[in-house]
Amino acid sequence: MFSLFASPPSFAHTFERTATTLRVDAARNFEATLRLDLDALALGVDPSIDPEQAAKTLLAMNDADFQAVEEGLRRVLSRRLRVRVDGKPVDFEISFPHFRPRPERLGVEVFGLEVRLAGGVPAEGKEIHFFASRAFPAIELTFADEGTGRNEFHICLPGEECPRIKLTAGEANAGRWSFVVIGFKHIVPLGVDHILFVLALFLGGRDMKALLIQTGVFTLAHSATLALSTFAVVSLSPRIVEPLIALSIGIVGLENFLRSSGVSRARIAVVFFFGLLHGLGFAGILAETPLVEGQRLAALLLFNLGVELGQVTVLAVAFLLSLPFKDPNQYRRLVQRPMSLVLTVTGLVWAVSRVAS
Q1: Domain boundary among 140, 173, 206
Q2: Quick check: 150 pLDDT over 60?
Q3: How far apart are the C-alpha atoms of 81 and 131, rounded to whole Å?
Q4: pLDDT interval class at 155 (50, 70, 90)
Q5: 246 plus 310 within the same structural domain
């Protein structure tokens, strides 16, 4: 458990992912665009290590060396990326628009963020399927059929098969209900800080009434700010929201450690306030999803349903794991206080890390 705060995620709501757009035009040509840190990938270094220095290294290369880097990158990506139609791989060309950095761009933006795959869909093809190996973070896949105007949105965990997408007009295989899955995955397994906050609520005591009150207040609060943020009524920078969400884990964990039992009005107020912050964090994924345009309310409700199912799953697992500890004193000594201390340290370390990043 202590490994949780050894390598804290900097922004868990904008969790590390590969934003990918897959388009099929009326002429049955497809184009997949991925955004990732090509500089680091090309140089074989950790993406978290000084991207500006990576860009300067590429900038200093002569043309022959840079072309060799590009070819090597194509070979790597051709092994790690697949586009299939009706289950059969199709060929594609790989290009890197705007890859080579220019001196005037240094210090202004991140470089080499785009990979483009281009190919054709066989005339008889009925479904298309995108796959990226486990080497990539979670795939945030937006599909656009420009012939029919149909869109879909999916999140695929690292190494997970993305859903097969129908190419026939009127046969969307996921539609709006995919937002339930997206909301669930935003908690389990991608929302580590949400999981820890829900666990902190669970560790507040074994009184089921108190737990229901806390989780109800938390749900009400995060649902409110999720809705307000989705409809652009409220907005707050992730650089403010994310450290505070980490701090919420630490504060609730600390109160669990110090308090013997019961849920005070102050505790309920704290949970409500932090629920508002978590809702702003949830909203980030919907704000970045083109699919939501024109169907915001349905997407919001289904996404929130997925979030709630994720929270219920976390609570159910925690409850099952706590069953062997029948004696309240033993539970507090062996589970509640040690785990609350871990959550306290984790939350505080993450908060400091996020402020510093």
Answers
A1: 173
A2: yes
A3: 6
A4: confident
A5: yes
The reply to whether omega before 189 is within 30° of 0 (cis) is: yes
| pLDDT, tens digit, 9 for 90 and up, residues 44-54 | 545 555 556 66
**Structure confidence by residue, pLDDT tens digits, 27-39:** 889 999 988 755 4
The parent domain of residue 254 ranges over 187-356
Q: What is the pLDDT of residue 267?
A: 87
pTM of the shown model: 0.66
| 169/192 same-domain check | no
Residue 6: per-residue pLDDT: 38
The tally of domains found in the chain comes to: 2
Q: How many helices (H) and strands (E) does the chain have?
A: 11, 10
The dihedral region occupied by 121, where left means phi > 0, alpha psi between -120 and 50, and beta the remainder, is: beta
In the block, which residue shows the tokens 């505080």? 348
Contact 7, 346 (CB under 8 A): no
Q: Clarify whether residues 241 and 299 are in a common domain.
A: yes
Alpha carbons 151 and 173: distance in angstroms, whole number: 11
- Residue 6 domain-assigned? no
Q: Tokens at residue 300, please?
A: 């919001």
- Is the pLDDT reported for residue 8 higher than 70? no
**For residue 262, is it within any domain?**
yes
C-beta separation of 6 from 350 below 8 A = no
pLDDT of residue 208: 84
Report if residue 299 sits inside a domain: yes
Give the pair of three-digit tokens for residue 176: 């709006």
H helices present in 177-295, as ranges:
178-187, 192-202, 208-230, 238-258, 265-287
Measured in residues, the chain has a length of 357
- Mean pLDDT over each residue of the chain, to the nearest integer: 80
**Whether 169 and 191 share a structural domain:** no
83 has which bridge partners?
Answer: 130
